[in-house]
Amino acid sequence: MILTVNNISELPDAAKEILHFIADYRVVLFFAPMGAGKTTLIKELCRLLQITDTAASPTFSIVNEYHSPKGNVYHFDFYRLKEEQEALDLGYEEYFFSGNYCFIEWPEKIPNLLPEEVISVTIELSEINARKISVQKGIPSSYLTALY
Ligand SMILES: Nc1ncnc2c1ncn2[C@@H]1O[C@H](COP(=O)(O)OP(=O)(O)OP(=O)(O)O)[C@@H](O)[C@H]1O
Ligand SMILES: [Mg+2]
């Protein structure tokens, strides 16, 4: 599925479609360059999931936990990860296989730890305020070759 977001006001509708596409999947990977809008989109998805505590905790380093009527949501940002071992240390498996939503920024940092059953969201900058958002099952082949 490919969505065009001409400006940020169109993001809520795009997020709705993405949430439908995600359906029963729980691990969602966000591939995009810095500042493309991963966090902004994740916040929108969280809003749709009726998350009440959207304020990022001051200790948010790698994983942040939000609460919603539909269960917990785990938001990862692996940007600062230096090695996969750090993800093992924080017990990533407990999160990834918990059955709760896991929204993952910078999944490129943990290529060997990514589960098979995932949805990938790729965000490309087309113009300053416009975004092309691609959503698919599995990992995009362009990233697969780059990851391994
Ligand atoms: N159509 C759009 N969709 C999403 N964000 C947009 C859009 N237009 C402009 N923006 C702006 O782009 C910026 C995206 O920042 P955001 O922190 O979400 O990026 P990010 O991909 O999470 O970056 P990082 O890799 O540093 O975590 C925000 O300032 C947001 O307001
Ligand atoms: Mg971000």
The Cα radius of gyration reads 14 Å
Residue share in helices?
A: 25-40%
CATH topology descriptor: Rossmann fold
> Helix segment count?
5
The CATH homologous superfamily corresponds to P-loop containing nucleotide triphosphate hydrolases
Order of secondary-structure elements: EHEHEEHHEEEH
Sheet-strand content, in percent, reads 25-35%
Q: State the low-pLDDT regions, or none.
A: none
- Structural class, from secondary structure content? alpha/beta
Compose a concise summary of this entry:
The protein is α/β, with parallel strands linked by helices. It has five helices and seven strands.
Walk me through what this model shows:
By secondary structure, this protein is α/β, with parallel strands linked by helices. It has a single domain (2-135), classed as P-loop containing nucleotide triphosphate hydrolases (Rossmann fold). The protein is 27% helix and 28% strand. The protein has 5 helices and 7 strands. The chain has helices at 11-22, 38-48, 85-89, 92-96, 141-147, and strands at residues 2-5, 27-31, 63-68, 71-77, 101-105, 119-125, 131-137. The chain has a 7-stranded mixed sheet with strand order 1-7-6-2-5-4-3, covered by helices on one side. The two termini are 25 Å apart. Magnesium ion (MG) binds next to helix 2. Magnesium ion (MG) binds at residues 38-39, 77, 105.
Properties at a glance:
148 residues, alpha/beta, Rossmann fold, binds adenosine-5'-triphosphate, binds magnesium ion
Layout of strands and helices, then pairs:
Blueprint: E1 2-5, H1 11-22, E2 27-31, H2 38-48, E3 63-68, E4 71-77, H3 85-89, H4 92-96, E5 101-105, E6 119-125, E7 131-137, H5 141-147
Parallel strand pairs: 2-5, 2-6, 4-5
Antiparallel strand pairs: 1-7, 3-4, 6-7
Helix pairs in contact: 1-2
Bound molecules: adenosine-5'-triphosphate and magnesium ion (MG).
Magnesium ion binds next to helix 2.
